[in-house]
Amino acid sequence: MSPSPTTTEPGAQSSLVDQNLNDALATVASEIGRTDNKTSFLLAFNGAIIAGLVGSADKDLPVLCLVAGGLAVLALAASTILLLFVVLPRLHGADRASFPYWATCDTQQILAEMSDDRRADQLRVLSQIALPKFQGLGRAIRLSLAAVVLIVIAVLALIVTALA
Questions:
Q1: What are the tens digits of pLDDT across the range 6-31?
Q2: Which of 74, 95, 97, 106 could cross-link 122 (Cys pair, CB 3.0–4.6 Å)?
Q3: How far is 62 from 46, CA to CA, in rounded Å?
Q4: Which residue spans traverse the membrane (predicted)?
């Protein structure tokens, strides 16, 4: 009689856990890399837009245009600060599952640490790094979107003033 679909043999369960831990570690590490790539793109975007807005600040512009542009610069500055926190290294030295801890060990201690399966600990540590990165990136994107809306308002104010 073959096992039911919900029942797994002990060796198969261990193999499944091994594969799931490996897959989860690879996924979280990949997500951290993707977040850093998105952050780099958004930092460059914010910098270019801030430079353009600051460069046009000395022009004779309508008050609504200046106010909306100024608020856009503030939103982009706040977004940039959040993005810098996203790429700020988070070094957990006491977790025994990452390189900051291993940097404090001598060769024999590292070999002893490698005799234990620390993948679950590594998954926890990487997830604790990834979650704030994603949250900060999400907040920064929302601020950048608000800045784009403010820039559109400023441009519309400029167009309306030019047509009047």
A1: 555 656 677 888 899 999 999 999 99
A2: 97
A3: 23
A4: 39-55, 61-88, 143-163
- CA separation, residue 78 to residues 41, 133, 137, 146, 151 (Å): 16, 15, 12, 11, 15
How many domains is the chain built from?
1
3-state percent helix, strand, coil for the chain, nearest multiple of 5: 80, 0, 20
**Residues of the domain holding 82:** 36-163
| pLDDT of 5 higher than 60 | no
User: CA-CA distances (angstroms) from residue 43 to 61, 77, 78, 82, 161?
Assistant: 27, 10, 11, 10, 32
Q: Which two tokens stand for residue 32?
A: 């951290």
pTM of the model: 0.79
Residue 157 pLDDT greater than 80, yes or no: yes
Both tokens of 121, joined, read 């600990």
